Amino acid sequence: MNRSDEEPDDVERAVEAVLFAAAEPLTIDAIRAHVGEGDIRAALGGLAARYAGRGIELVRRGDRWQFQTAGDLAHLLRRDREEARKLSRAGTETLAIIAYHEPVTRAEIEAIRGVQISKGTLDVLMEAGWVRPAGRREVPGRPLTYATTPGFLVHFGLDSRRDLPGIDDLRAAGLLDPVDLAMGDDDAGLVVENPTEDA
Amino acid sequence: MNRSDEEPDDVERAVEAVLFAAAEPLTIDAIRAHVGEGDIRAALGGLAARYAGRGIELVRRGDRWQFQTAGDLAHLLRRDREEARKLSRAGTETLAIIAYHEPVTRAEIEAIRGVQISKGTLDVLMEAGWVRPAGRREVPGRPLTYATTPGFLVHFGLDSRRDLPGIDDLRAAGLLDPVDLAMGDDDAGLVVENPTEDA
Amino acid sequence: MADDPATLTLDIDGWEGPLDLLLALARSQKVDLRQISILELVEQYLGFVDSAAALKLELAADYLVMAAWLAYLKSALLLPRDPEQEPSPEEMALRLQLRLERLNTMREAGARLMARDRLGRDVFRRDAPAGLRTVRKAVWGAEIYDLIAAYGRISARTRPMMHIVADREVMTLDAALERVSAMIGATIDWAAIDTFLPSGSARWRTSALASSFLAALELAKQGRVELRQQAPFAPLYLRAAP
């Protein structure tokens, strides 16, 4: 749908201005608080179509919307900017495990990685604003679980967690099933379904 | 010139992204430093036309260019939020004294309450639109007096201050039962003018 | 294993734990992880541990625990089947393979995540947006009841107080003095103070007792009566002074 040859309606102009001025991604409710009455959702749809393929794009991150530059123009913009601090391998893996398994306990993360999480790893992810504590699991010891934040979606350009690459395939393959915490413990008695069946 | 139904060219997209992400207005040279070769001026002209009449506009300030929200939408970026707040006990008592005794000075209010009033208390009552300064009393120090406003009557559904119940009414309603005498200072020793006189 | 907090984790050539090492070895088989030979993998791992030992490298405990477990798995896989054994060696091998696959999957997912167009690195928001402002305006609320109740409260607190004592039967000191003086003249011997009291209500008699007592003290002070009491709270006797 190419609407760009039509006159934008007032709601669309208003939503455009509000999102442009906003310092943070905005929910539809937050947009409405500024714009007032009107079909915000339709306006967002109209704007998304209008900006598709342009140097600026309207994107949805979780339940929030924002303008950002198109990804293919990164090389033009990167020039005078600091490279984002590089996450360690442990940090990267831990973040991936949390994102694909959330909510997940520290012990479960350690079971997947086969190694203890060093003290700073979760701290770094939380400090970056990508990971948050997500309540306790009601099992003995009531361990804390971790999950990703809306900021995680924003930073990594994901509409929602469903957009995590390959998540549906991994789930179908049983690779995201609850982790057998006690691998090597013969008493675990957990029957592992054959993960190759439907892969 | 309406170019918006054409595909934007690469230079235009690049200029769009660079201007969007910039912290401040950019000169053509600064834009070229990011975008590289290409007709920056033509791209700016194309963008200006494309954004004309929209919620965001491309504007030129001297020799610098920037995006900004359309001037007519500035009011949307500021939102007044009303927060319901309940008047404190000190505020309510002070308002009552002003209503029954106006015009009344701060010192008189304090004498009647038997407690000092903080600066904020009168400010709140004036912010609420219920109390106004009502001239100075011609005594040494010329203290300011306070009185209620028409807004006060409207808010409390009173036709006039005469509608305020007098002492006898209060007594009949059980509102003079000294339930919280313990909290007051019995030695205040103040003779309260009988407010029923003009009720 | 990894859950033991006392385990010393030592990075050996950049491996993060035995599972990481196993995964690296498995990938060196250059086949899909689902088709790796577990037996071959076990040989590779044990070979690595042996060579580390030969080099007198001190391996972290969890590498050795894994080596022991793999040696056990190897023997279980090679020896005749024990139908009683739970889980079966095949299942144990499958679980190991699944763990490697999971770790590998997450490693790849992490790499793909990091390679995405990331905000602030590849895509950008506006650097200095004007921002949206919310101006908070307080709307003060109070009800007329609050107002008049407050005034009632202040009035009750600060009005001058008049204390009214309920009227009750009282014998004044003067009356008692007169009465006791008169009665003492008519009595020769010691008499308990009770006998000086008039009849009447309990309250009246209480007041009369108090007043008569004070009168007795006053008369004693004047030298007109003598007082006698055996013990504290014992009956008080009086008679005219001789």
Automatic annotation (TrEMBL), chains A, B:
<dbReference type="InterPro" id="IPR005234">
    <property type="entry name" value="ScpB_csome_segregation"/>
</dbReference>
<dbReference type="InterPro" id="IPR036388">
    <property type="entry name" value="WH-like_DNA-bd_sf"/>
</dbReference>
<dbReference type="InterPro" id="IPR036390">
    <property type="entry name" value="WH_DNA-bd_sf"/>
</dbReference>
<keyword id="KW-0963">Cytoplasm</keyword>
<keyword id="KW-0132">Cell division</keyword>
<keyword id="KW-0131">Cell cycle</keyword>
<protein>
    <submittedName>
        <fullName>SMC-Scp complex subunit ScpB</fullName>
    </submittedName>
</protein>
<dbReference type="GO" id="GO:0051301">
    <property type="term" value="P:cell division"/>
</dbReference>
<dbReference type="GO" id="GO:0051304">
    <property type="term" value="P:chromosome separation"/>
</dbReference>
<dbReference type="Pfam" id="PF04079">
    <property type="entry name" value="SMC_ScpB"/>
</dbReference>
<keyword id="KW-0159">Chromosome partition</keyword>
Automatic annotation (TrEMBL), chain C:
<protein>
    <recommendedName>
        <fullName>Segregation and condensation protein A</fullName>
    </recommendedName>
</protein>
<dbReference type="InterPro" id="IPR003768">
    <property type="entry name" value="ScpA"/>
</dbReference>
<dbReference type="Pfam" id="PF02616">
    <property type="entry name" value="SMC_ScpA"/>
</dbReference>
